[in-house]
Write a structure and sequence with these properties.
The chain is 68% helix and 0% strand. The protein is mostly helical and 305 residues long. It has a single domain, classed as Orthogonal Bundle (MetI-like fold).
């Protein structure tokens, strides 16, 4: 005997409710809460290690001990109990240098992303609110920036200004400002046609007041998400530049420079490269997971599913 169908299920006016096997449900469960919790815990551990590096590091990061050079990590033959992660080619403690390198890499990526956001937000807001020739000029500059390979820009800036942490922050800020500008301009063009914007304009509000009071609060969510996701991109970009010798110069340690300096010892002492490389992977993966989770929770369309 066949089952009787529910009349509501045959009524086209009734919305279809997703079941546990529906695609929307499976998409929302793609990243379980446990994964996000682990990523958040790992982010706290990495951030705490970076902030407390001067207090928990066992050695000076630049102290050289040539008699203890290339000591393997604890647990391997020939290891030294003082060097938990081993020592590098100059006898410097790898754990200490990883802590200080993580600290500087995070600072450079955060300040670079913040400066790039500031430049892109200003450009995108002006382009979207003013429009016309100003909009065309700013968007033309964005197209030119995207068309030019970033490595060439980095080489030019570093050749003129020199290699230092401040210069590297400025270089990284140039990496994604055009993407921020395009995103914010698109959001502004959508929001400025809303009825409440027209009402504010009719009430005599100035463009600056409209931008600060009404436009900026409504574009915060996508900008925060893009900022978070770009941090991981800048960490990888900083590591690439430091690996090529275009970043902070020795003896100051960043994770990328440690990988670059240790590449000649990968065959005989792989821990010299493995420790900072694993940290780069963990930081980038953690930031990307948290940024992806933040996108899902701030996107109204995904929350309504």
């Amino acid at each position: 005997m066949s089952a009787i169908a529910d009349p509501k299920s045959l009524d086209p006016s009734q919305p279809n409710r997703p079941t546990s096997d529906s695609p929307n449900h499976s998409q929302r469960r793609f990243r379980p809460d446990a994964v996000i919790a682990i990523a958040a815990l790992l982010a706290l551990i990495l951030l705490g290690a970076a902030l407390l590096a001067p207090f928990i590091a066992p050695f000076d990061p630049d102290a050289q001990r040539l008699l203890a050079r290339l000591k393997p990590p604890i647990g391997f033959s020939g290891s030294d109990a003082r060097y938990w992660l081993g020592s590098d080619q100059l006898g410097r403690d790898m754990l200490t240098r990883c802590l200080y390198g993580l600290r500087l890499t995070l600072l450079i990526a955060l300040f670079g992303a913040a400066l790039g956001l500031a430049l892109g937000a200003l450009a995108g807001l002006v382009a979207g609110m003013v429009g016309g020739t100003v909009d065309a000029i700013i968007m033309g500059l964005c197209d030119v920036k995207i068309a030019i390979p970033f490595t060439l820009v980095a080489l030019l800036v570093i050749a003129i200004a020199g290699a230092s942490a401040v210069v590297l922050v400025c270089v990284l800020s140039l990496a994604y400002w055009a993407q921020f500008a395009r995103l914010i301009r698109a959001q502004v063009l959508t929001i400025r046609e809303m009825p409440y914007i027209e009402a504010s304009r009719a009430a005599g509000a100035t463009p600056i007041r409209i931008a600060i009071r009404h436009v900026l609060p409504n574009i915060v969510s996508p900008v925060i998400v893009m900022f978070t996701l770009n941090i991981s991109n800048l960490i990888l970009l900083e590591s690439s530049l430091s690996f090529l010798g275009l970043g902070v110069q020795p003896p100051t340690a960043t994770l990328g420079s440690m990988v670059g300096l240790g590449r000649d010892y990968m065959a005989t002492a792989p821990w010299v490269v493995a420790s900072p490389a694993i940290l780069i992977m963990l930081v980038s993966l953690t930031v990307m997971l948290l940024g992806d989770w933040l996108r899902d929770h701030l996107d109204v369309r995904l929350r309504e599913r």
